[in-house]
Amino acid sequence: MTERFTKAAARNIFYGGSLFFFATFVALTALSHLYIVNTSTDKAGLNDAVARGKHVWEKNACINCHTILGEGAYFAPELGNVWKRYGGDKDHDGAVTALKGWMAAQPSGIQGRRQMPQFNLTEQEVEDLAAFLEWTSRINTQNWPPKLSG
Amino acid sequence: MKYESQKVALWYFAAAMGLFAVQILVGLLAGAVYVMPNLLSELVPFNIIRMIHTNALIVWLLIGFFGAAYYLIPEEAETELHSPTLALVQLGLFVFGALAAVVGYLFRIYEGREFLEQPTWIKAAIVVVALMFLYNITLTLIKGRRTVITNILLVGMWGIAIFFLFSFYNPSNLALDKMYWWYVVHLWVEGVWELVLASILAFLMIKMTGVDREIVEKWLYAIVGLALFSGILGTGHHYYWIGTPGYWQWIGSIFSALEVAPFFTMVVFAFMMVWKSGRRHPNKAAMLWSLGCSVFAFFGAGVWGFLHTLAPINYYTHGTQVTAAHGHLAFFGAYAMINFAIITYAMPYLRGRQPYNQLLNMWSFWLMCGGMAFMTFVLTVAGVVQTHLQRVLGMDYMEVQEQIALFYWMRLGAGVIVGVGVVLFLYSIFGPAREERPASIPTNYQPAE
């Protein structure tokens, strides 16, 4: 902190620099916004069922146990690619049936094993959730996660 | 303490510490569920426990920041607060909103985006609270002296309020949702919160070391400049795998690697000021928390952040226990500890005492810091094992979790140690204030304020 480096200079660098970096960030975010909407996610496939499914996901706070695209709690498996783990990319109806079976069977009640609550979802809600998870599994995530295990 | 209105800080600190106790109790419960998974699984499932743990943390830290601002702004601005009554109304509303949210969570009322689970009306109440606060301190500063500390603090607090507005935007496109969600989460904790942290630390350094304000203020600009220059584009390290373009892997890696710089500068700053001053402030515990804060923030936010921030590494570690380890030490070191520092410093003035219960307070420092460090180590090892088994070998998630169960027991043990430290801290701060023996300071050293 030499004498020549004055407080006024420090102040100008701070405010000027911060504005510059924030403007750059906003511009890059705007580009990313367009990229997400048009390129990396399925624009045509983002229908009402997917939107309702996202709401089911949120209403039941799934993210406070699971992760989705790596974000969330770390108490239960990653679900960004669960659709593929269930084989949904090859057998759509099979995966939906399996998901219905899974949701109905919770909680397992097995001693010493983490318990997933019974959310009492309706048939429609599970189908919407499946639509949401299927749509999510098709997001271009730069090939993340590295393994199917999530 | 020179101004009567600073007293409102006492209520803020008390409320913050109350919610802190809730956060720790619920955190211990969450740690217990990790090793005894059937515990409360039907009555209060893990997702609700975790939501209360994280929300209580965020709210108590904010209440602590508000309290710190109400304490230091009159002294910096050399004038009474514009309205102490408004400050207390603001606190009442905030605490009511926080408690209503927690009770609501127990009854399955939430909106279910991570950390932003609050129902919309509570989010709106938070905005009202923030506006009341900004109105109050802005008017105080207009009529008083403006210093660099108050300016940076004000910019930080305005930033907190403005970026929170993104929590109202929830598009049905998950990738878009995530990108703007980070406008709240990252630009808070790796952006404007650092401004609040640095300005509180600078205030403490001026008060406790007596080093010339001009020098402290230049350091403060350097720290917050480094924080925002690295931290804003550093947001890119959250944009690697969520459907955002590949260029973020370069931008995020480079800029977030630089996020270590402001924390390193903070360590140098704090120790240099203390070394330069040659004075010994009688509140040794507050000094310990201040210096400790800079060190733990450097390790928790800086070093542990850098460990997994480069895109090629993050590709494997993203969303594992490595993230959990970093999250715990970063929040504790940077934001919990700055609160303990300002509370330990301010409480003797607010209670009209000489510094009291110093030894007990310093014991709580070592217990909390030791416990948190151990927790971070075991979670880091758990995370490395998890990364290898799950992300390299492709083992099933639940099988991997069984492999690392031992580390979760150690984490619970570490949590218990932290819990003991918390009890000591709360007792040392709010318990009976025994007068310390007069500090054995040579007479030629005059303590600063």
UniProtKB/TrEMBL annotation, chain A:
- Output the InterPro entries linked to this UniProt entry: Cyt_c-like_dom, Cyt_c-like_dom_sf
Pfam families, per the entry: Cytochrom_C
Q: Which SUPFAM superfamilies match?
A: Cytochrome c
TM ranges are 12-36
The Cytochrome c domain covers which part of the protein?
A: 48-137
Q: Superkingdom of this entry's organism?
A: Bacteria
Keywords, alphabetical: Heme, Iron, Membrane, Metal-binding, Transmembrane, Transmembrane helix
Molecular function terms, GO-annotated:
electron transfer activity; heme binding; metal ion binding
Q: What is this protein called?
A: Cytochrome c
**Species name:** Azospirillum doebereinerae
UniProtKB/TrEMBL annotation, chain B:
- Please give the Pfam families that the UniProt record associates with this protein: COX1
Which terms does the record give in the GO molecular function aspect?
cytochrome-c oxidase activity; heme binding
Output the SUPFAM superfamilies linked to this UniProt entry. Answer: Cytochrome c oxidase subunit I-like (SSF81442)
Coiled-coil segments, which residues?
Answer: none
**Per its UniProt record, what PROSITE patterns does this chain match?**
COX1, COX1_CUB
Does Iron show up as a keyword for this record?
yes
Domain Cytochrome oxidase subunit I profile residue range list: 8-449
The way this protein sits in the membrane is described as: Multi-pass membrane protein
Q: Does the keyword Lyase apply?
A: no
Q: Which GO terms describe its cellular component?
A: membrane
Q: Which GO terms describe its biological process?
A: aerobic respiration; electron transport coupled proton transport; respiratory electron transport chain
- Top-rank taxon of the source lineage equals Bacteria
TM annotation in the entry = 12-36, 48-73, 85-109, 121-142, 149-169, 181-206, 218-241, 247-274, 286-307, 327-350, 362-386, 406-430
Keywords in alphabetical order, please. Electron transport, Heme, Iron, Membrane, Metal-binding, Respiratory chain, Transmembrane, Transmembrane helix, Transport
Q: What is its main location?
A: membrane
Q: Where does the UniProt annotation locate this protein?
A: Membrane
The UniProt family comment states:
Belongs to the heme-copper respiratory oxidase family.
Please identify the protein, giving its name as recorded.
Answer: Nitric-oxide reductase large subunit
Organism of origin is: Azospirillum doebereinerae
Organism lineage reads as:
Bacteria, Pseudomonadati, Pseudomonadota, Alphaproteobacteria, Rhodospirillales
